[in-house]
């Protein structure tokens, strides 16, 4: 929401993907799933699918600019995402039209599709300089970084850049944020084994733009966007014979909320098998099965998880879980208000970071941060 309590208005300037995996189609899905209102200025129409780009038709520059002017003059804009730009003339015209806006701008310098198709010529790439100067953040992948002159040359321009590491051959993906003030923040995650990676760059940039439009600072906006992309990769439907689309439509709202959310309850049981059979019969999807530990976790259709844990003291084994991305800050705030913790925040072997305390009635409450590991632990069934 923006300051008026209305959905944040995100203008997407990019090409259309007839296969629905990237471009305008992926951008609209991303903005919508993150609670915003998507508007578009289409720069090119492509005939493509998971195997590649078969044809490209560039939209005339005047029409691209007319689309921008139409939505800006009536609906207004809280953030802009720029993707495939089409031509050098369009790049310069877009830079002219955006120069008067004061909202965040995210520039994803699209040059090559996941399939390898070239989507920007040398003149267009040269014209990207103006868009990078306008942008709040520019988000090149590794091949795009090289086309822009390499890391050192790009950083010498003293513009904020998020270098995406997904095109490396490493199992560990590292993304680096370089700010104009020569500050660097990096994130690393294990590569998700899937061929459904079409549109990852478009989705990340659009998610960042949506977050910035909603008033988030840059680093939290990037962190939420990265989580959104990883969950969409986990939820990919497996469509197409090549690099298929991600599962934007399956990313649950509970993973995206800014504040604490009730995401799990663990109840005790004496007979593990009987309890597992009972909750399966109720229609819950089992996602963790650990009989040796007496532990099973289930998932609800809305993404909330529920678990059972074998215990001789069932009446005292119930635990309520509240999740927050800002766990440590949350615990610090509670400590300052006089609350005592049985366990301070610590990283657990199952991939969560947890803190525990008792409520006034003596019920155990777990405050935690899990990200994708709550629904997608390494041992998910």
TrEMBL record:
Main enzyme class: transferase
Pathway assigned to this chain's UniProt record: Cofactor biosynthesis; thiamine diphosphate biosynthesis
GO biological process: thiamine biosynthetic process; thiamine diphosphate biosynthetic process
Residue span, VOC domain: 261-370
Pfam families per UniProt: Glyoxalase (PF00903), Phos_pyr_kin (PF08543)
Gene3D superfamilies to which the protein is assigned, alphabetical: 2,3-Dihydroxybiphenyl 1,2-Dioxygenase, domain 1, 3.40.1190.20
E.C. no: 2.7.1.49
SUPFAM superfamilies (alphabetical): Glyoxalase/Bleomycin resistance protein/Dihydroxybiphenyl dioxygenase, Ribokinase-like
Coiled coil: none
Keywords: Kinase, Transferase
An annotated GO cellular component: cytosol
InterPro entries: Glyas_Bleomycin-R_OHBP_Dase, Glyas_Fos-R_dOase_dom, HMP/HMP-P_kinase_dom, PM/HMP-P_kinase-1, Ribokinase-like, VOC_core
GO terms of molecular function: hydroxymethylpyrimidine kinase activity; phosphomethylpyrimidine kinase activity
Highest taxon above the source species: Bacteria
Protein name: hydroxymethylpyrimidine kinase
């Amino acid at each position: 929401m923006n300051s008026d309590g209305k959905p944040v208005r995100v203008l997407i300037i990019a090409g259309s993907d007839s296969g629905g995996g990237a471009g305008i189609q992926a951008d609209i899905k991303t903005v919508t799933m993150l609670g915003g209102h998507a508007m578009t200025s289409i720069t090119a129409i492509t005939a493509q699918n998971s195997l590649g780009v078969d044809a490209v038709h560039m939209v005339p520059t005047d029409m691209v600019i007319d689309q921008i002017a139409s939505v800006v003059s009536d609906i207004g804009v809280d953030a802009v995402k720029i993707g495939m730009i089409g031509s050098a003339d369009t790049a310069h015209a877009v830079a002219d039209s955006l120069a008067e806006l004061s909202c965040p701008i995210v520039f994803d310098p699209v040059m090559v599709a996941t399939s390898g198709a070239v989507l920007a010529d040398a003149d267009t790439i040269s014209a990207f300089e103006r868009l990078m100067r306008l942008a709040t953040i520019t988000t090149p992948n590794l091949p795009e970084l090289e086309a822009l002159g390499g890391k050192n040359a790009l950083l010498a321009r003293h513009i904020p850049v998020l270098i995406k590491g997904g095109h490396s051959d490493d199992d560990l993906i590292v993304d680096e944020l370089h700010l104009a003030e020569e500050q660097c923040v990096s994130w690393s995650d294990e590569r998700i084994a899937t061929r459904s990676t079409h549109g990852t760059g478009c989705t990340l940039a659009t998610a960042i733009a949506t977050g910035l439009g909603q008033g988030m600072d840059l680093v939290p906006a990037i962190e939420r966007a990265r989580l959104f992309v990883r969950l969409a990769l986990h939820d990919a439907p497996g469509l197409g014979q090549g690099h298929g689309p991600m599962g934007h439509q399956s990313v649950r709202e509970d993973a995206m909320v800014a504040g604490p959310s009730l995401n799990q309850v663990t109840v005790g049981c004496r007979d593990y098998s009987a309890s597992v059979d009972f909750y399966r019969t109720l229609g819950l999807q089992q996602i963790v099965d650990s009989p040796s530990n007496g532990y099973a976790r289930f998932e609800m259709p809305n993404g909330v998880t529920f678990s059972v844990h074998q215990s001789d003291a069932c009446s005292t084994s119930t635990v309520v879980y509240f999740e927050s991305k800002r766990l440590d800050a949350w615990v610090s705030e509670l400590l300052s208000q006089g609350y005592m913790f049985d366990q301070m925040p610590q990283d657990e072997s199952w991939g969560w970071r947890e803190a525990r305390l008792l409520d006034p009635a003596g019920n155990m409450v777990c405050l935690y941060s899990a990200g994708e590991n709550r629904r997608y632990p390494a041992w998910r069934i």
